[in-house]
C-alpha cells in the first residue's frame, strides 16, 4: 500500500518510514501541508492512507485535513499530542477516519492503518458491491463473505473468514499476533493466542493449502499468495 506521511520532523519521519517500510508500505514523506496537498493530486494519487501530523509549519493540521477531504476520499489518520476529547471530535468532524495520540504504540498505529484501509475496501462504491480478492485458486468475496477454492465453496466460521480476509488484503505482509487479535477478535492479546493458532490451523486444513498462511516465528503470520 502507498502511504502519505505528513510530518515536519525529519527524524521522526525517517524512523517511522523505516518501520512502515518493514511492514510492506511504500511511504512518501511530505514535510508541510502544502506539500501533502500537492502529493494528493490528482484525486488521491493512488495513496491508500494519509498519516497526518497536526503540528505542521505552514498550515493548521485541521485545516489541511479539511482540504484533503474536499479533494479525495483517501482515509486520513490524524496524529497529534492533543489528547482532549474536543480535539478528537473536531478532527473526526472534519473528515478524519481515525485519531492517534502521541506517544503511541507502533503496533496500535499499524492496526489502525490496516483497519481504515480495510473499511475503505468494503465501502468503495466503485466496486459495485462486487469486491473480491483473488489469490491463485482462492477467491474471497468480501460483500457475501464467501470463499471458494477452484470454484468449490469452503465453509468458514465468521472468525476464520475475518482472519483470512485480513491476511489476504496484504499478501506477503507480516501481521503481528497482537494486531490480528485486535482487529479480528477486538480484544487484547492475553489469553487469546491459542485461539489464533487454532483458527490458523483450521484455515490451512479447510482450504487444503497448508503453505498459504506462513508462521513468522516470534512475530505473527503472513499470507503467501499461491501461483495462479
From TrEMBL:
The keyword Transcription regulation applies. Residues 130-225 bind DNA. Pfam families: Response_reg (PF00072), Trans_reg_C (PF00486). SMART domains: REC, Trans_reg_C. PROSITE patterns: OMPR_PHOB, RESPONSE_REGULATORY. Residues 130-225 form the OmpR/PhoB-type domain. Residues 2-117 form the Response regulatory domain. SUPFAM superfamilies: CheY-like. The modification 4-aspartylphosphate is found at residue 53. The keyword Membrane does not apply. PANTHER family: REGULATOR OF RPOS, SENSORY TRANSDUCTION PROTEIN REGX3. This is Sensory transduction protein RegX3. It comes from Streptomyces incarnatus. The lineage of its organism: Bacteria, Bacillati, Actinomycetota, Actinomycetes, Kitasatosporales.
Amino acid at each position: 500500500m502507498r502511504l502519505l506521511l505528513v510530518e515536519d520532523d525529519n527524524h521522526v519521519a525517517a524512523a517511522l518510514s523505516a518501520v512502515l517500510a518493514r511492514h510492506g508500505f511504500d511511504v512518501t514523506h511530505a514535510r508541510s501541508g502544502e506539500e501533502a496537498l500537492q502529493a494528493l493530486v490528482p484525486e488521491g494519487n493512488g495513496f491508500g492512507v494519509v498519516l497526518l501530523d497536526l503540528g505542521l509549519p505552514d498550515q493548521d493540521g485541521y485545516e489541511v485535513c479539511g482540504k484533503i477531504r474536499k479533494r479525495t476520499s483517501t482515509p486520513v489518520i490524524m496524529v497529534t499530542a492533543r489528547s482532549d476529547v474536543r480535539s478528537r471530535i473536531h478532527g473526526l468532524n472534519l473528515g478524519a477516519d481515525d485519531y492517534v495520540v502521541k506517544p503511541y504504540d507502533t503496533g496500535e498505529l499499524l492496526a489502525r492503518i490496516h483497519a481504515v484501509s480495510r473499511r475503505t475496501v468494503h465501502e468503495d462504491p466503485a466496486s459495485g458491491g462486487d469486491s473480491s480478492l483473488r489469490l491463485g485458486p482462492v477467491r474471497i468475496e468480501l460483500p457475501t463473505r464467501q470463499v471458494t477454492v477452484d470454484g468449490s465453496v469452503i465453509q468458514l466460521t465468521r472468525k476464520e473468514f475475518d482472519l483470512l480476509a485480513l491476511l489476504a488484503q496484504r499478501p506477503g505482509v507480516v501481521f503481528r499476533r497482537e494486531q490480528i487479535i485486535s482487529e479480528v477478535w477486538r480484544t487484547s492479546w492475553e489469553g487469546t493466542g491459542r485461539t489464533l493458532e487454532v483458527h490458523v490451523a483450521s484455515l490451512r486444513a479447510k482450504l487444503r493449502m497448508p503453505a498459504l498462511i506462513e508462521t513468522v516465528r516470534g512475530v505473527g503470520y503472513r499470507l503467501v499468495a499461491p501461483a495462479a
